[in-house]
Write a structure and sequence with these properties.
The chain is mainly alpha-helical. The chain has helices spanning 12-33, 39-58, 63-90, 103-120, 122-127, 130-133, 143-171, 191-207, 209-212, 218-226, 229-241, 244-258, 262-271, 280-283, 288-291, 305-308, 311-320. The longest helix has 29 residues, at 143-171. It is globular and about 75 Å long.
Amino acid sequence: MAIIHVLDDYYLAITLLITIGYQLFFFSIAFSLKFDKLTDFAGGTNFVVLAIITLAFSGHHHARQIVASMFIMLWGARLSGFLLFRIIKTGKDDRFDDKRDKFLPFLGFWIFQMIWVWAVSLPVTVLNSPNLTRFNQPTFGTGRDIAGLILWAIGFIMESVSDVQKYRFRSNPANKGAFCGIGLFSWSRHPNYFGEIIMQFAIYMISVSPAAYGYVTGQAYKALYATILGPFFLTVLLLFVSGLTLQERPGAKKRYEAGTNWEAYSRYLHRTSILIPLPPQLYAPMPTILKRTIFLEWPIYVFDPAKHADQSKLHARDAEQGGRSEHGDPRQSVG
């Protein structure tokens, strides 16, 4: 099968243009109809589209290309399918309540989604490109390949299972106001994020094998290693932009001020790792210095009632309850 050369020999330009067009198409529907149901579906399926197109254009279908492409397609298809199912059940996405009617802020989200899709797809995009397929590849089954397969399977299972566990927990009316601390969430407060991160590094590990074993040289060698930007970008996104920073301290603050199962939630924060799964029996007694470093419980995530709680809300709530409070000592930070 002939190789298709389009714009550049790393497929960077064509994948960027396809991503921009794909996202703008769904943005026009979402903004015109004030329709939230296709937003995450557009993000996940975009990965599938890019992997199919670059694999088809490559002209060479080495086992490594097929596996890496299938892995990102399976991840994107499962994620988009689950999020579509969830939004159909819930009806709307609260993230867009302050953006849905504002053209530029709403478009800004979609532009960020374009960058996310294009960047995270980089390992597969470059692996499938003409500048890489012109080189021979090591037979699939190297140590990196096997490690990547195992890590990807672990990540896929973790993300899939934790998504279902949290959805079922929240769908039960008896759990209204409660927090999900069951299943994988008893070992990690965000097992789905951890699974997503290790999946992308697993795909990178498989994709970079031709360079790691000396089959690829020159600029192609550098380009393949540079695709670590993809999993690194995703990790930064989840740690500092749209993941933990939006859920940890804000979530604890909201629960503390509302007095909703605060004491139980505070104990959950103390005994459960923020991201890296670990049995609570090991995590709870761990020295704070280890939690704050190796296990990523950084100060930006920690909720300190004395510093971060809205005292006016606490006074109003205490007045309504006749002075009774579940808040405990406001001087003690949690997380």
